Amino acid sequence: MKRKTLFPLVLAVLLTLSACSSANTAQTEGSSSQTVQTGTEESVSSVNPSDMFTDNDLEIEYDEEASAKITLSGDSASSDSDAVQISDSTVTITDEGTYILSGTLHNGMIVVNAEDTDKVRLVLNGADITNSTSAAIYILEADKVFITTASGTENTLGNGGEYVAIDDNNIDAVVFSKSDLTLNGAGTLAINASAGHGVVSKDDLVLTSGTYDITAANHGLSGKDSVRIASGTYTITSGKDGIHAENADDTSMGFLYIAGGTFTIMADGDGISSSAYLQIEDGSFTITTGEGSASAVMTTDAVDFGQRGGLQNQTTDTSTEDDSISQKGVKATGAITIAGGTFVTDTVDDSLHSNSDILISHGVFELKSGDDTIHADATVHLQNGDFTVAYCYEGIEGLSVTIDDGTFDITSVDDGINAGGGIDSSGFGGGRPHHETFSASSDNFITINGGNLVIVSTGDCIDSNGALTVNSGTLNLTCNGSGNTALDCDGNYANNGGDITTNDGSENNPGQMGGSRGGPNGKRNTGNMDEQNQIDRMLLDYIDENRDQLVEHVRQMVRIDSVEREARDGAPFGPGVKKALDLALSISRDMVFETVDLDGYIGYAFYGRGEDYVCAMG
Fold it and tell me: What is the Cα–Cα distance from 153 to 430, expressed in whole angstroms?
């Protein structure tokens, strides 16, 4: 959907008292001489699975006879190994080897403090360890530590709700490791973090097998250099991210790799998050963030043309996007590569989000989002897959979008597929009042090489700020929004063999049914009207279509005795003028503008970001 200067013009007509609006004019038009794009330059790198896991990571067998035994007994413990030091309820392991832990330890800690060349395996064999003021397991020094759940056993690790410093390290997890850490096994492990995180590794965090039930106040699983998961079953409830990989010191690290597994994640932050690249080979993922997509209520009935939607009853927002909480399903700063798996999401924010590229080759996706279901700041390349989008603001969005094959059933509040729609760093709240637009360029294009697409939208079904090329495939498009079209593009349009059906005839003339700038082969088809005349015509059409509502707004305004009188708190020109200002700003918010009240002296409403403002003052 295009952002037109018609917005502030409508506001100026309506709000003849004390409101002004800004228009984002950074968007440039596509060139009519643009070359048709037929594909994307592949920039997504792939990771070799064999490089992710060692034999020891995958090994869950151990020699029980050769292993040291540690018996936990309430507030004390005992062991048959000289490498185990016990002081009250603190058990310290100082040497390489395998240690089998069983029993219950109250308000205690297992510490691994060995040589930096030592590999240590902790076998949890019906172990229940809690610490009211710190970690249950603290890995201070070792080359690598393996925590293995014994077959058929149930094990529990917990924290009591706070972390009191015991050394210079910032211990903030039930399992806290300064070294590489691997979790595996054939048993179950419950982790309860009343404060802090579930599991933290300050190096690599690897999980290859086992069943895990993690409840954490902050992140469920967190690795600094990487998080790598081969298999296993994971139920994670977290106050922040479910699975989190981040390295603020080295941007090449902090990646996340998943070969398989079953994941049920309920996160108040992101479901799965990586500060570098994120690659998923397979797995079953059920991800809910926040209160789900339905909590991001989107409006479409205020200004049917050109609006970006927004939260109902939205109030003045003077914060920046950086202040917003990210509640995406799968998120990466780098590229996202998905080779397969099943994904069921219900997210406040984007379901799949990359600040770089997204490449999907296979998979089954059932997505609901309060924002975009698939968003990349650069390229989106969908080679195949089964995509069902029951609810979203926009379905698929990127600088460019290429679809090779697959089935798509998309229902969207705004555009079904959008190229050049916006770079979205947060997207919190569904309607994206701070949404920034891409500039239209040769990098903006949509190419459809095949597939079966059914799209029902209030915005444009398919909207490209550059070229739109359909080489093959079946497209059934229904646009239900006034002023929008099933097909819309700013650059060249070419149908080289696709079977396209629309409810508005725009397959023959993209964008023109709604007065947009697109057209076959990039021609504007403006007739005898220049662009300003088109905008004027759209404004007059809008006024005709919404005359009753506009007249009622004017009646509400003129009923107010808005003559300047004695100043009061918050009303420097008297209560009447303040009442008129409040009504003007309320009407503006209903039209999905953002509003600012400058202490009752003046108010203004704005949409988008830019340097040019159109104001109506009185």
Answer: 44
